Write a sequence for this structure.
């Protein structure tokens, strides 16, 4: 059945309203759940937590051209938490970088869509990631490259807490503070849960915003609700409010958002979604999509 979300997806264009972004994110989250269940592999928890943010980036924010993925002036995006690859693949496909029919082939032999994103295989992927802790340094280099070549593109990098537990990330943060490249933005998908436990127990990061400030980054005075597309758009306005760089924004999110019995737990970080959990969880995601479609 044709509906407004299908129309938005077909258009593959930028959208402006928070309600449209919310409906798209709900639609993508449901599809990711279906694909991960069908494929019995992949990372549901951290893909779901970043779903609204990555949807807002690709459908509202980034200056990109799906017909020309290598366009020199495009904004760059690095998914430093590369295990959440299916959320990146899903927004790239529906934004027009490749055929969404590829998505069900996720992690099959010969598909361009492997478990972790490859910039050599997937149109629109700006950097291959998967080993945690590299994204911020690569982003800092890309942003410095813009400065040196007189370009005005922006470079966005998304981390979870795993990347922030890596020493190389903090070296890159020091580097960013020294060179202050314009347009460098660190986005933290702060779901507070990692692969094998709570971030607070693995390696406490708090007070995280103060740490970014102490390291010389212009940091939003509050964290934003990473599941509220209105709040995400507000955070984008904050990014545009002044010309002080580099900038860091923290988004409070929930791992495995959308399925109540999976939420806020490391149990579903990368576990295959079994049939019983799929049957139990899917109606919650479908109901959320229906609600958000009705609001359009
Ligand atoms: C260098 C490195 N060490 C370990 C891993 C294995 N690993 C994959 S995801 C993950 C936890 C990541 O936690 P977080 O960044 O909070 O991810 P999210 O909850 O957002 O999915 C770990 C330890 C890895 N990919 N790279």
């Amino acid at each position: 059945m044709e509906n407004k979300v299908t129309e938005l997806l077909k258009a593959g264009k930028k959208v402006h309203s928070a309600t449209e972004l919310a409906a798209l994110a709900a639609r993508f989250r449901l599809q990711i759940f279906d694909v991960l269940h069908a494929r019995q592999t992949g990372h549901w928890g951290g893909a779901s937590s970043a779903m609204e943010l990555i949807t807002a980036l690709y459908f509202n924010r980034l200056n990109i051209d799906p017909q020309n993925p290598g366009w020199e002036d495009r904004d760059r995006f690095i998914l430093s938490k590369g295990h959440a690859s299916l959320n990146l693949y899903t927004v790239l496909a529906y934004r027009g970088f490749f055929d969404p029919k590829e998505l069900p082939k996720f992690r099959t032999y010969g598909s361009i869509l492997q478990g972790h994103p490859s910039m050599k295989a997937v149109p629109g992927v700006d950097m291959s990631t998967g080993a945690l802790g590299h994204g911020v340094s690569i982003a800092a280099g890309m942003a410095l490259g813009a400065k040196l070549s007189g370009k005005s593109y922006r470079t966005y990098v998304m981390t979870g807490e795993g990347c922030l537990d890596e020493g190389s990330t903090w070296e890159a943060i020091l580097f960013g503070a020294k060179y202050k490249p314009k347009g460098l933005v660190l986005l933290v998908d702060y779901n507070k849960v990692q692969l094998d436990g709570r971030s607070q127990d693995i390696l406490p990061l708090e007070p995280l915003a103060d740490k970014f400030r102490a390291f010389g980054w212009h940091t939003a005075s509050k964290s934003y609700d990473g599941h509220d597309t209105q709040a995400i758009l507000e955070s984008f306005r904050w990014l545009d409010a002044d010309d002080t760089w580099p900038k860091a924004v923290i988004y409070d999110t929930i791992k495995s958002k959308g399925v109540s019995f999976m939420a806020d737990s490391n149990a579903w970080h990368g576990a295959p979604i079994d049939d019983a959990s799929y049957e139990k969880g899917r109606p919650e995601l479908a109901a959320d999509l229906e609600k958000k479609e009705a609001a359009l």
Remarks:
- The longest helix spans residues 18-39.
